Each structure stands twice: as structure tokens, then as C-alpha cells.
Amino acid sequence: MSVASPRLGGSRSADRLVPLILVPVALIALGPVLRLLLEGIGFGEGITTEHLSTVLTRDSTATALTHSLITAVGGTVISVLIGASFAFLVALTDIRGKGALVFCLMVPMMIPPQITALAWMQMAGPSSVLLKMVGLAPPLGSPQPFYSPGGIILLLGIQHASLVFLTLRAGLRMIPADLVEAARMSGAGTVRVWAQIVLPLSLPSLIAGAAMAFVTALGNFGIPAMLGIPAGYSTLPTLIYQRLVGLGPSVLPEVAVLSLLIGAVAIAGVLLSRFVLSRGGYGLVGLSGTPLALTLGRFRTPAEIALWLFIAAILVLPLLALLVTSLIPAYGARLSFDTATLKAWREVLFVQPVTTRAYANSLMLASLAAALLMAVCLPLAWLMERRPSRISRALDALIDLPYALPGVVLSIACILAFINLPFTDLTLYGTIWIILLAYLARFFVVMLRPIQASVSQMDPAMEEAAASTGARLGRRLRTIVLPLAAPSAAAGAILVFLTAVNELTVSALLWSSGTETLGVVIYNLEDSGETVMASALAMSIVLLIVLLMGLVQASAKHFPKGVIPWQS
């Protein structure tokens, strides 16, 4: 019996389900992007290039674009160096403690970028509490070294190294050991095997990971805002933020053009990576065998020490600096047994209404986004697999777009789409619901892809048997599809929650008084000089994220393989 049999794939219930699912998904996920495009070309005033020419010829635009390219490319290079080094050692060698190393490397990606910037700022400079404790603080009045393009590039590279690592590790696992053994039997040495077999076969994954790191670095707001704005170094995301915050909705046509410019550069980077891959002709076609595993021998212990020292440098020291800063009574004071206090922790967690409200907002938005996306993606994944159509295939091809575009671009798109709801006088701008809709569009693909993979592996025979006994579509989805896809859906929901609860790039342009998120409050606290409180709030979020990641790790055996990114 075929999948598209009348009893299973051609039921009237399924036909009615198609518009109920596909239309809202298309409107929420793709509608804002289309609205942004129309605004950028001046569609409401008749198609015109006035906005484009005015904005694109400004010196501030050229400067911000140049700075964005410099920091994104520089950050990508560092991400590739870090991610590739970890991937080659973890995926191909016999080093010990791989699970712990991967978990620690993933933590910086899960920590909000503004917290990453804040932690590194507390680790260096004349006001560093940590450096004062060991007597290494530079003299007062010395510049903060991270208020510079180099500081932005370094932290962007560390923040997004996990993207390169995850992508490359998946590709390295596909290199069969028998291919390398055949080369060695033919007399090829280690260097030749590396240069002519391992590196060429891993290039597709390496280039794909580099493209992801570039796009993410290009749209990163938290790090350039924390380190660039004080130094007068603007990138496109921070320029958009400053224009919108300074002049309000009146500059929406202008920032729409800037957003399209970011999107165009991001897409150009992805297309360039695909062009390079198409010209290279790399790939593993028809090869199979056990994964490649190399023995380091006497170099194993030095390699392990180097990896753990690096983890300590990029993770432990910055977070330790953040922690000790949160324990001082006032910024600039020295930390000792006599001065240590939890006053800032008590203030941000229990006294200040804005921080407690931000915690409630972020947890609510992340939970709602995860729950709603799970409810929508389960039947949607089933429709795409069991009832493929032109509409569903088109949606499947475009659904990655809101996630691939920089977050600031999606923010502007949502403002344009929801500032005036069609056929009403209502607006979502300035409400918490516009942030929720932006989260739904942003993280839709994060939930959909794991469930799609799970549904595609299901044998339709069980559904056909249930249909033959008279079970309707709703019952089949509830009793067969849902239990089998539940582990993947749960893993997707956890990833959506972890990503959304610490998000800043999208919400930075959408929040208003009363709808602050955690990322926004940390940025505002640091910007207003409340560094100790910002450090305490940031450290509490880090602990929350690590706790949630630990719970996911502890429950890993209940999830299908591959749905938890850091799990082997």
C-alpha cells in the first residue's frame, strides 16, 4: 500500500488540515520578510529606488558596512581555527573526555553574546576585579582593550566556533577508515594522508560551518553593541539600533534598506560558499566503512592539556571574572572576605522590578515559543512527509530564511509587518506579542527539522493499519505519530527554549517598557553604569543555562541520536 493511499494520505481530514497549518505558518514565518522587501523598494509609494539611493550613498552606511565585513570575516577566521581544531581532535583521535570537552565548547554558544562581552570586559582593563585580586590590573585611566575591532573579532570568533565544530564534526565522521588504510598501504605518510584525503573530504563541512559562522557574526548585535558603541565603532546592526532608538518608527523605511543590505551580504556569503563547493567537486560517493580513528600516542596527553587550557581561557576565566565582579559592593572596589557581598544578587533577583519582570518575560516567551512551535510542527512535519505538495515543498525550501537572516533584519521585518494590523486600527508594536511572533518565526526551523527527520523514519504501515480500522486522522496523529516523534519534539523544544531565553538580537529592537527581556536588561544595566548588577544578573543566567544544558545531558539517553547538538 502506498503512502498516498486514499485511506492515509488522501483523507478529507488531511485536506482540511493543509490550509489550517500551511497558511498561518507561511504568514508568520515568511510574511514579515516579504513586508521588509516591499518596504525597502518603496512599494507603498510606487516602486522606487529613492530609499535605496539615499541610504546606500551615506558615509555612515559605508562605514558600518565596512566594519561589519571586517568583524564578520575576522570572527569567522577565528571560529574556523577554533572549531576545526576541536573537531579534528574530537572526531578523529583517541583523546579522552570528549563529552566534557564538547559540552564546554558548546556553553559559549548558548550564553548570550552580551554576557560574553561583559565577562571578557570584567577580565581585562583597569577596573577588573580579578586582575586587582592578583595584582595585575593596569593603572587607572588605561583603555579597555576590548573596546576595539580586535576585541569584537575575538569574541565573535569564540562565540560562533561551536557552529564550525558541529558542522565539521558531522562531516569528519563520514570519512571511512578503509580509505585511509588503503592510502597507507600504498605508501602514503601521515602528512600526505592528511593533505590529500582527510582535508579535501572535510572541506564541504568546513566551508558550510564557516558560512554559518559568517552569517551569525554579521547579524550579531550584543558583542558589537557592548564593545563597539563605547569606542564609536559602528556595525550595521548597531547603526540600525541607534537610528531606530533615536528617531523611532519614522525611520522605518531607512532601517528597512539597511536590513536588506545585511540580508544581501549574508546571502552573498552563503552563495559564495556554495559556489566554492560546486567548483571543488568534493564528496564521499559510494564509500562506506567504519569511521576514521587516529591514535595520537605520546602526543595524546599534551593535546588534552592544550584543549583544557584553552577551555579554561575562553570559558572559566571570563566567567570567574564575571562572578567576582558580582560579589563586590561597588564597581571599582577590591574583593576580599570583608567586602564580599551578595547585595547585587539580591537586588537583581528579588528587589528590582525590571529584572524580575525580565526573568518572567524571557521564561514566558521561551516557554510559549517552544510549546506553540511543537504544537504546529508535529502536524506540519507529518503533512510535508505524507502529503507533499507544491505549497509544502516551497514552504520547506523557504522556512530556513528567517533563521538564516540576521536577527536584526527579522526584527525590522516584524515591526513593519505588525505595526499596523491589516483591516484594523490595532498594533502589536510595543507589546510583548510582537516579540513572541518574532521568536516563532526565528526558531521555527529549529523545531521543525528534528521532527521532520523523525517522521521521515517512521514506517507508514502502522498509520495505514489504523486507518483501515476506521481511525480518523486526529486519532492517528495522537496515538501513533505523536508518541514516536515525541523525543525529537522534546529535544527541539529544549533547543528553542535554551536559545530564546537568552536572546537579544531580535528583542533589542522590539522591546518597550514592561516587555524587557533578560538580554535587554543586561545591556541597559551595563550601558547605564550598573556593572555590578549587570554582572550578577548575567551570572544568574549563565547558571540557568548550564543547569538546563546539564538536565538535557542527563536525559540524553531518552532522545534519538543526533537531536542534541553536543551529544556524540
In short:
With 568 residues, the chain is mainly α. It is built from 24 helices and no strands.
Report on the structure:
This protein is mainly α and 568 residues long. The chain has 24 helices and no strands. The protein has helices at 12-40, 50-56, 59-92, 98-110, 113-123, 129-133, 149-159, 161-172, 177-185, 190-219, 222-228, 236-247, 252-280, 300-325, 343-351, 353-386, 390-398, 401-404, 407-418, 432-456, 461-468, 473-501, 518-527, 531-554. α3 crosses α8 (161-172) and α3 (59-92) packs across α12 (236-247). Mean pLDDT is 81; it is low at 1-10.
Descriptors:
disordered N terminus; 568 residues; 0% strand; single chain; mainly alpha
Report how far the terminal alpha carbons are from each other. Answer: 37 Å
User: Sheet bearing the most strands, described?
Assistant: none
- Uncertain runs: 1-10
Order of helices and strands: HHHHHHHHHHHHHHHHHHHHHHHH
Q: Please, what is the oligomeric state?
A: single chain
Using only CA atoms, what is the Rg? 25 Å
Shape verdict: globular
